[in-house]
Every structure is written in structure tokens, then in C-alpha cells.
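Most newcomers find our protein records easier to grasp once they have seen one. Nothing more is needed to start thinking about how sequence determines fold. Here is such a record, shown just as it appears in the course material:
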Amino acid sequence: MNKLPFEYQQALIAAKEASEIIIDFYEQGFTTEIKSDGSPVTQADLASSLKIQEHLIKTNIPVLGEESIHPEFEIRKNWTKNWCVDPLDGTKEFIKKNGEFSVCIALIENNTPTFGVIAWPIKKKILVGGEGFGVFIVDFEDIDQNNKWEKLETKSSKNNPLVVLGSRSFHSHSEDYIENLKKNHTEVVFKEKGSALKFFDLASGTADIYPRFAPTMEWDIAAGQAILNELGGEVLNVETGKPLTYNKENLLNPFFIAKTKPMI
């Protein structure tokens, strides 16, 4: 692989260093507050956000993140590129200390995610990929040695039994949808996992589909969508059947189904 573009380098470094900050809080303790929308936020969320901003600002690409101030849509609608960031995805899992939390950074170009980074702080691994770039699993210590990166390939077949992913802390699937899957597949197993770590399973081929019939925000899914797209998978709006779009006026995602290529 050739030298990484500067923007990609900064995203990888940001994800790694933010993960290290998160783990420090995880091991040493942290305080938690409740935001106006009822969701929790910890010192780790905020410190991670600042570290990511520190690196991404060097790219001269605007940042839209969960814990940052959001410019008005009148400004954002003119962006042709932006970063979409969740500095600590799975805060509830972080608080529960079950290890299933992540750092998500995506590059959005003309409302489409083209590059994504999902870091797994506990495992010290990063899932990274994007349009024309490939998809890789990277150890933290190897982010500047891409000859050591593990390249992931598109699955040639679906799992048997079919593996369906769901949220650890939210009821996120439709019972009717699951029943319909069971009509078309001999056996279906359901696996719960927190945060964007579900995309590790989808990208690596150990799961097939992630139906989400519960609220998510753009920064929760953008990185995963960029990665799945490069592997031939997709993240589709349940109502329209079209890929999710980003930097919308309302940053809430519609209900969606994320799936690997063999499910298409």
C-alpha cells in the first residue's frame, strides 16, 4: 500500500490517541453527567472529542461531532466535505465496563461517507476502510506501518446459521423483520454487541446483517457505512431502500438495515 493521504493519517492517529485517553479514564475512574436529551456523557467522551479535534483541525475539513458545537444547517449545507465524529460510541457500555465501546471517525464527501475509522480501545485495534482504499484491521502499534495491516476481503457466502446483530443496550430490531428472515433462512441466530463494534463483525464476515429499528445519529453509523460500502455491502434506509445520507438538516438517522454483500 502506498503512503496514506494526510487526512487518513490524521484520522487514524486521532482515533488511536483518543482511545488511549478513554482507556485511562476507564481504568482510573470518571464522572458522568446526563445531557439534555437524557443520554449520559462522561469525562472520557469530552476528552476524546478534544483530542480528535486537535488532529482533524489540521486537515482544514470541518468537523461535525456528537460532543462538539454544530454549525447551523445554513452553513453546513455548503460543505462538500466534513468529518463526522463520535468520540466515544457506546457510552452506556463504557459506564457498564463491558469493553464494548468505540471511537468513530468518518469522512463525508457530498453527503456520502467515503472513509471510516472505528477504533476498539480495549483491543487496541482499528477497523479502517473506504472508497478505493480497501478495508483493514490495524493494531494500534502498526498504524504507521501499513505493510503489517490485515486486509479484509468480501465474503463469498453468508453464514449458516445466519447471524443477525442487535444492540446491547437498546431494543433495536423489529420482531416482524426477524420473523421474515426466519422464513427465508433455515436457521437465524441473534448476537448482541455494543456500539459500532458491530461493524467489526460485519466487515470480518462473522455476522451478516444489522437491522436497526431504533434511533441513531449520523456519527454512529457513518464510519461503518464507508467500510461496508468498500466491501460491497450497504446500509439502507428501511423506508426508501436507498443508502443513508449525511450532513442532513436533521442529524438523526432513519431506521436502517446494514448488511454484507451476500445478503444483497
Q: What stands out?
A: The longest strand covers residues 81-89. The chain has two domains: 6-152, 162-263. The two ends are 29 Å apart (CA to CA). The CA atoms of residues 164 and 190 lie 5 Å apart.
